[in-house]
C-alpha cells in the first residue's frame, strides 16, 4: 500500500484538524466554559451541533490511523513499529469517542483509553528513536512522556477540558518531534537500516 509523499504530513494535519474541530464547536456553543466543561460536552446532548464534534473526531481518527500505517512502514526497528501499532489502537479509540459520545455508557472508558494508548505510543516511540541512534530526539520524546504524565497526574486541573488540552498538546508536540525525526534522515536510509535489523 502506497500512501504517497503527503503521508508524512498526516500527523500534523490531524493535530491541526483536531483543534479546528474543537475551536469551531466552542464558538457554536457559547455555554461552553473551558475551566468547567469537558471537550466531550461539545458532542453531547447539550451541544448545538453534536455531530460536528463527533464526526470531526472520527475524521481526525482516520488521519491518525493512516499516519500510523505510514509509521509502521517507515519504522526502522521493531520498537518503532510497536509504537506505530499503539497509535493505530489510539486512533480506533478516538473514533469510538465520536461514536460513543458524551452521555453514553462506554464514553468514559474509550476517552480514557485513547490517552493511555497514546501515552504508551509516545513512550515506545522514544525508546525506538533511542535504538535508532537519534539520541537527542529520543531524549526529547522520553522527556515529553515523563513531563506530560507527571504534570497530568500532579496538577489540580479545574476541569476535564483543561487536562484534555494538556494531553492533546503533548500529542501535538510528539507529532512534531516524530515528523522532525523522519525528515532528518535520508530518504533511502529506512530500507538500509531495516535490512540491517533483519
From TrEMBL:
Keyword flag Transmembrane helix: yes
Membrane-spanning intervals of the chain: 9-31, 51-69, 81-100, 112-131, 138-157, 163-182
Keywords: Membrane, Transmembrane, Transmembrane helix
Coiled coil: none
Name of this protein: DUF998 domain-containing protein
Top-level taxonomy: Archaea, Candidatus Marsarchaeota, Candidatus Marsarchaeota group 2
Amino acid at each position: 500500500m502506497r500512501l504517497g509523499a503527503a503521508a508524512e504530513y498526516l500527523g500534523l494535519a490531524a493535530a491541526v484538524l483536531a483543534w479546528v474541530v474543537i475551536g469551531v464547536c466552542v464558538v457554536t456553543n457559547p455555554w461552553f466554559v473551558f475551566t468547567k466543561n469537558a471537550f466531550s460536552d461539545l458532542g453531547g446532548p447539550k451541544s448545538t451541533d453534536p455531530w460536528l464534534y463527533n464526526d470531526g473526531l472520527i475524521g481526525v481518527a482516520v488521519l491518525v490511523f493512516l499516519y500510523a500505517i505510514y509509521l509502521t512502514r517507515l519504522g526502522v526497528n521493531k520498537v518503532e513499529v510497536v509504537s506505530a501499532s499503539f497509535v493505530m489502537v489510539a486512533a480506533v479509540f478516538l473514533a469510538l469517542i465520536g461514536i460513543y459520545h458524551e452521555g453514553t455508557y462506554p464514553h468514559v472508558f474509550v476517552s480514557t483509553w485513547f490517552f493511555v494508548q497514546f501515552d504508551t505510543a509516545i513512550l515506545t516511540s522514544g525508546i525506538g528513536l533511542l535504538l535508532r541512534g537519534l539520541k537527542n530526539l529520543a531524549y526529547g520524546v522520553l522527556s515529553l512522556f515523563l513531563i506530560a504524565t507527571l504534570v497530568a497526574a500532579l496538577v489540580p486541573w479545574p476541569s476535564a477540558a483543561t487536562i484534555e488540552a494538556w494531553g492533546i498538546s503533548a500529542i501535538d508536540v510528539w507529532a512534531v518531534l516524530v515528523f522532525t525525526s523522519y525528515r532528518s534522515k535520508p530518504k533511502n536510509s529506512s530500507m538500509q537500516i531495516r535490512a540491517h535489523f533483519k
